[in-house]
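User: Structure please.
Assistant: Input sequence and predicted structure:
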Amino acid sequence: MQGIDLHVATGKPKHGEPSKAEDEDATESTAEAGLLEQMKQKLKTQAERDLYRMRKAIVEPVFGQIKEWRGFRRFLLRGLQKVRAEWKLICLTHNLLKLFRSGRAWEMS
């Protein structure tokens, strides 16, 4: 996928969904099953498990901060190009606010 090394959850069901053992009619698409199997193989090495574990400290908090601090719950525009532009604007303002609050914004000049 365009040079992106994916790391996805493999075994924990989402909230409100029955586990695979409870849902006997659950069937995965072949593509999804293939990706999950690849991820399970990838997580067999300690280095990959450590990298996967880091997502909780690096990536996921940013989405929580944007949702909580900025109140961003949904995109206002429609269409992939417009949504991408809106997301870039949200990320830009999030980073600028972090710099401003840290006091580093004034040190750069």
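The two ends are 40 Å apart (CA to CA).
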